[in-house]
Amino acid sequence: CARTVPKCVFIDLGAADGNSFGTFINNGYGPVANCPSGQWEAYLVEANPRFDAPLQKLVGQYPAQVHADKSTAAFFCEGTTTFYLDTQNHAQNYWGSSLSSNHPDAQK
Questions:
Q1: Neighbour tally for 52: CB within 10 Å
Q2: 107 forms bridges with which residues in the sheet?
Q3: Beta strand pairing status for 8-13 and 106-107?
Q4: Which of 10, 39, 43, 89 has its CA 20 to 30 A from that of 27?
Q5: What tens digit of pLDDT does each residue of 68-96 get?
Q6: Is 54 within 8 Å of 15 (Cβ atoms)?
Q7: CA 43, 61, 47: angle at the middle one, nearest 5?
Q8: DSSP secondary structure code for residue 6 in this structure
């Protein structure tokens, strides 16, 4: 399909609870009002199921603009793998979730 109206596109691979989207929508990366034609879309991808509900809330707040792939890891090809969750670092927004079982904050 051909896009006929220019717009800003925000993509976050590892979106957590949408905190970087919050920075975007609050003009942290530049005024959103300056997006071409005043339009924008956001694609948020997050593997950790802990963040499904906060991302779904953002979809509800911006239903035509925010697209969230919850419990989904960004990867080059489609497939399945084991994802290890950080259950220790609440203060750091669980940043240790990993595809590596060796990460000290991740558990299977």
A1: 15
A2: 85
A3: unpaired
A4: 89
A5: 999 988 777 777 778 788 877 788 887 77
A6: no
A7: 40
A8: -
Contact 10, 43 (CB under 8 A): yes
Q: Where are the beta strands (DSSP E) in the chain?
A: 8-13, 40-46, 66-70, 85-86, 106-107
d(C-alpha 27, C-alpha 70), whole Å = 24
Q: How far apart are the first and last CA of the chain?
A: 41
Would you state the structure tokens that stand for residue 50, as one six-digit string?
Answer: 């802990």
Give CA–CA dist 16/93, Å, rounded. 7
Q: CA-to-CA distance for 14 and 74, rounded, in angstroms?
A: 8
Task: In whole angstroms, give the CA distance from residue 59 to residue 15.
Answer: 13
pTM of the model: 0.73
Rounded to 5 degrees, φ, ψ at 56 are: -65, -35
The CA distance from 73 to 93, in Å, is 17
**Which residues contact residue 91 at a Cβ distance below 8 angstroms, ignoring those fewer than 6 apart?**
none
